[in-house]
Amino acid sequence: MSDGFQIRNPKSEIGTGGNRMFRRPNGLMRIFTGLLTFVFAALFPLDAPGQTSTATLTGTVRDSSRAVLPGVAITVTSIERNTSYSTISNETGNYVVPALNPGAYSVAAELTGFKKFVQEGIVLQVNQVARIDITLDVGNLSETVQVSAAAALLETDSSSRGSVIDQKKIVDLPLNGRDYNQLALLSPGVLPGTPRLAAVNFKGVLNVNGNRTFNNVFLLDGVDNISYSNSFRGENVQLVQPSVEALQEFKIQTNAYSAEFGRSSGAVVNATIKSGTNDVHGSLYEFLRNDVLDASNF
Fold first, then answer.
1. What is the pTM of this model?
2. What pLDDT score does 175 carry?
3. 55-147 to CATH, choices 2.60.40.1120, 3.90.550.10, 3.30.470.20, 3.90.1300.10
4. What is 161-273's CATH number?
C-alpha cells in the first residue's frame, strides 16, 4: 500500500478463486464478436458524410418583383440517362438537389399561377456546387418560359480552388504511358515529381504548392484510391489506375477544399468513371508502345 493505492499482480488474479479474471478471449469469442458487429452494422447503418465525386445544384426561386417563392416544384433531368430528381423550394425560396453525376442536365420549375420555367444546357462537373437562380413570371402554368442558352456556372457556394479536366481533354491531349494524372500539370501550382521518380515512370507523383509528392489524396468515385503499400505496387501512388477511356473527368483541388477531403497537405485528385446512358455505344482502340519506335535519347 502506498498513498491509498494498491499495486496488484495481474497474474495472481487468474483463476476461479479471484474476484477478477484476466483472460484473453478465445478464437470462438472473437469470431462471435465480429459477426455480431457485422450484423449490427448491416441492420442499423449510420449516416456518415463521405468524400463525394458528385455535383450539387442549388439556387433561389423568385418572382418578377424579386420576392422569394416557397413551394415551387423543381425537377432536374439528366439528358444522357433521362432520369429525374425532384425537390421543393423551402420557405426562403431556396432549393438543393445533391448527388448528381457529372453530365448535362435541364431544370424545370412549376408553381400554380406562374408560367413554367425550363432551362437546358446545364453541364455539371465533378464535385461542383452550381447555382441556378430561377425567376418565374406570372401567367398560366400551361405557358413555358424556356432558356436554352448555356449560362456559365460560377461556383459561388464553395471556396475550393482547383481545375476540372474534362473527358475531351483526357482523350485528345497526348499522354505518356496513358497516365491521366499528367494532365493535372495544367493546373496552377502543380509540378511534376522528382527526376528520380520520373526516371522509373512512377505514376501519380505531383508536387502541389510546394508539398511533398506523396502528400496528395486520390479518390475514385468518392472511394479512397491510395496505395498504402510500402512498395507502392506497380510504381503507382494509386491503388487502381483507371483507363483514360473509362474516365468521365477528374478534378484536382489544390487549396481551401472542405473538411471532407482532409488528412493531406497536398492536393485532392477526385476522379469519376463514366456512367451508363440510354444509348448503346462503345469504343475500340489499340495501344502500342515499345522501344523499337522510340527516338534516340541523345
1. 0.71
2. 84
3. 2.60.40.1120
4. 2.170.130.10
